[in-house]
Write a structure and sequence with these properties.
By secondary structure, this protein is mainly β. It contains three helices and 23 strands. It folds into three domains: 53 residues, no CATH class; 194 residues, Trypsin-like serine proteases (Thrombin, subunit H), CATH 2.40.10.10; 32 residues, no CATH class. Strand 18 and strand 19 form a beta hairpin.
Length: 313
């Protein structure tokens, strides 16, 4: 425990090449792994202790957990955030685009399910958790991927005019049949995602509450163990139970959107966790949580999110 960077020691199975082995070892947890060239001989951890192999894992700084619904400055991923006209969602993580830092979360968290405009206030904590505008203003909406709804009421004036005329003729003729114009979805959605531009980048942290920093990105695979830190249920773990999922998601007010190429995990989230970054055991980002039920969690593939928004870590 006196060695540089060590925050914990314990007994666990040794991990080699990202896979857990059956070999017991003395596990040394460090805030971050340093190259051997940066460490002196006295700072290096021994390969074995009394013949027992050691293993080094990066866990980040260990601290007491704050309530994710509180106000954080600087704010990490995993805490309450939202458009000023919604209830609450979760700050996913920080991403980069055109040399600038942005907050990544869901469209329905940052862009009020398509009903917002760029420049709208983003609060941390979110309004449901006591966030006030402008006292808790942390960012402004930058952009979002529009959600296409199936069977949503049409806003087309031509279609509405035709329907009104036909309904009037039907009423005059004594018919009870009525027409309602709807917008038919041309293609399924891939993501529920949006970006917010922080007013002061120094008011944000790159780590995720209770998890640490993201180490990279990975493809979500069937059977993969995953974890997240969210505004409502905090830190939870689960397993990807299905891939290539097509799912109909309700957005309230009779609006339903169909999504394809999704990941499905078990019950590891509740309302308000939307926007959470989903990571594998190596802290690699695999998806963006956006929906679920009492038994399931639905996750956008991070490759689709990054591609459609044009962002990187």
């Amino acid at each position: 425990m006196t060695r540089k960077n060590v925050v914990a020691t314990g007994i666990g199975y040794k991990v080699t090449g990202g896979e857990r082995t059956g070999q017991l070892s003395i596990v040394c947890s460090v805030e971050r792994k340093e190259p051997a060239a940066k460490l002196s001989s006295s700072e290096m951890l021994p390969k074995t202790v009394d013949g027992i192999p050691t293993d080094v894992v990066s866990t980040g700084r260990i601290r007491v957990f704050d309530s994710p619904t509180g106000k954080f400055r600087p704010a990490p991923g995993g805490v309450s955030i939202g458009h000023f006209e919604i209830t609450a969602g979760t700050l996913g993580c920080l991403v980069r685009k055109n040399g600038q830092t942005f907050i990544l979360s869901n469209n329905h968290v940052l862009a009020n399910s398509n009903d917002a405009v760029p420049g709208d206030p983003i609060l941390q904590p979110a309004p449901y958790d006591g966030g006030l505008n402008p006292a808790d203003l942390i960012a402004e909406l930058a952009e979002f991927v529009p959600i296409s709804y199936t069977g949503a009421a049409s806003s087309c004036p031509v279609a509405n005019s035709i329907a009104e005329t036909c309904n009037l003729l039907a009423a005059l003729s004594g018919s009870n049949t009525r027409l309602q114009p709807v917008t038919v979805q041309a293609a399924t959605n891939l993501v529920d995602a949006a970006l917010a531009r922080p007013l002061k980048p120094e008011e944000l942290r790159r780590d995720i509450l209770g998890i640490g920093e993201i180490s990279g990105i990975a493809e979500g695979l069937l059977g993969m163990s995953v974890k997240k830190s969210g505004r409502t249920t905090g830190f939870t773990m689960g397993e990807i139970q299905q891939v290539d999922v097509t799912v109909n998601v309700g957005y309230g007010g009779g609006r339903v959107a169909q999504f394809s190429d999704q990941l499905m995990a078990g019950a590891m989230s509740q309302g308000g966790d939307s926007g959470s970054a989903v990571l594998d055991n190596g802290n690699r980002l695999v998806g963006l949580l956006f929906a679920g039920s009492e038994q399931t969690t639905i996750i956008n593939r991070i490759q689709n999110v990054f591609s459609l928004l044009g962002v990187t870590l």
